[in-house]
Amino acid sequence: MDESVPPTVLTTRNLDGIAEYIRDGKARTITVMVGAGISTSAGIPDFRSPDTGLYANLARLDLPYAEAVFDIDYFREKPEPFYTLAHELYPGKYRPTITHSFIRLLHDKGSLLKLFTQNIDCLEREAGVPGDKIVEAHGSFARQSCIECKSAYPQEEMREHIEARTIPRCHGCNGLVKPEIVFFGEALPSAFFDNRHLPEEADLCIVMGTSLSVQPFASLPQLAQQGKPRILINQEVVGGLGSRPDDVLLLGDCDTGVRKLAKACGWLEELEALWAATAPKEAAEPGPEKTKDEKLEDEINKLTAEIDESLNLSKWHQEKVRGSLPSLLPKNSSPESDQQPNSSGSPSFDNVLHHDPNGNLGHVFLANARDDGKGKKDSDE
Ligand SMILES: [Zn+2]
Q1: Gap from CA of 177 to ligand 1 centroid (Å)
Q2: How far is CA 2 from CA 218, 243, 249, 278, in A?
Q3: Cβ atoms within 10 A of the Cβ of 225, count?
Q4: 61 vs 1, 74, 132, 320, CA distance in Å?
Q5: pLDDT for residue 340
């Protein structure tokens, strides 16, 4: 950001300038654009990190490559890995972050025009942002339908299947059912295109926790009008934010950033109260039940057992296949090395979720895709 360029609308080109703009009632309509970076502090697992159990768990599911879990063709053949993942990520297991509550606060203040999220975790909804204010650009677990006849499937039955790790089938045509999460190769929801004009109408644009590396979402902040301030709350500068005279950068983690912004607006207490209300009820109710730690330990033991089970199954499966079909398996056959997604020369379709050419799952889970040739660095989150 070239700070020597004077702002045209803000009094000062910093957090205080944005807060003053809001306090003066100039930000009557606000669009917010977010990515996985607002959910990492909620504990939503980071796929790419080899350290997370989830990644290791996926590796044990015999996926040809990690993204296969979000590949519609692979899903048709083998839906089980996706449902194992869905079991881990299904809404209800994670608490919204204070950043999610901040978006809710903007709504309560009457100024949230629209939230555009790349996240599928539904934490914005759980923080109390109404569904009609949210564009889930990459879909979410909020709805599910048959992949063949497109019939809607009941939420409660879906929840039961995901809990039980069984595969739901369409009541009409017996086709596979999946949550309306946008898989690679699938078109974005029409809601994305129907609301794409809104950034241009807003008085303020807030971008948080996204690497803006996945199109067409990444182009949304550019649609904000010249002369309307934009603020980026993120670990790093992305998407050309900072290039306009009324852009403000607030680098660092999102939760710290929104607390600073809320404080400058005089909203911090209100924000903390909203967030406190998202705390799980068990934690607040004393009783003869198990303590939180005991429950956590139970959960960990259960997960460990499940992982061990998949590992054993997977080994058993491999041995069985290798034992019975030795001549069909090339010596160097490795699930990780020989079936990378083909991204070279693939056409760009503006309405279709783009495959990340570096083969990560940043479009869903990670705030800051850093594998643009500069090397991986996951330890500083
Ligand atoms: Zn069907």
Answers
A1: 8
A2: 22, 7, 11, 39
A3: 12
A4: 45, 13, 36, 15
A5: 38
- Strand, helix or coil at 128? coil
Largest CA distance in the chain: 74
Q: What is the pLDDT of residues 12-48, one digit of tens each?
A: 999 999 999 999 999 999 999 999 899 989 988 655 4
Give strand pairing partners of 204: 30
Q: Is 12 exposed, middle or buried (0-12, 13-18, 19+ CB in 10 A)?
A: middle
CA 57 to ligand 1 center in whole angstroms:
30
Task: Copy the structure tokens of residue 101.
Answer: 């509550």
Q: Model confidence over 176-215: pLDDT tens digits?
A: 999 999 988 788 999 999 999 999 999 999 999 998 988 8
- Whether residue 230 contacts residue 31, with contact meaning beta carbons closer than 8 Å, is answered with no
Average pLDDT over residues 142-167: 94
More confident residue, 311 or 259: 259
Catalytic positions, written as ranges: 138
Ligand 1 center from residue 69 Cα (angstroms): 21
**Which residues are close to ligand 1, an ion, with C-beta < 5 A?**
146, 148-149, 151, 170, 172-173, 175
- pTM assigned to the model: 0.73
Q: What is the dihedral of CA 224, 121, 271, 226, to 10 degrees?
A: 0
Q: Residue 139 phi/psi, 5° resolution?
A: 80, -175
Residue 337 has pLDDT above 60, yes or no: no
Nearest to 206 by CA among 245, 243, 254, 265: 254
Structure tokens at 337: 């090395």
- Fill in the DSSP letter of residue 170: -
- What whole-number distance in Å separates Cα of residue 362 and Cα of residue 364? 5
Which tokens hold the place of 222?
A: 């550019």
Provide the token pair at 244.
């306009």
Q: What amino acid occupies position 170?
A: C
* 154 Cα to the center of ligand 1, angstroms: 13
- Angle formed by the axes of helices 98-108 and 254-265, nearest 10°: 30
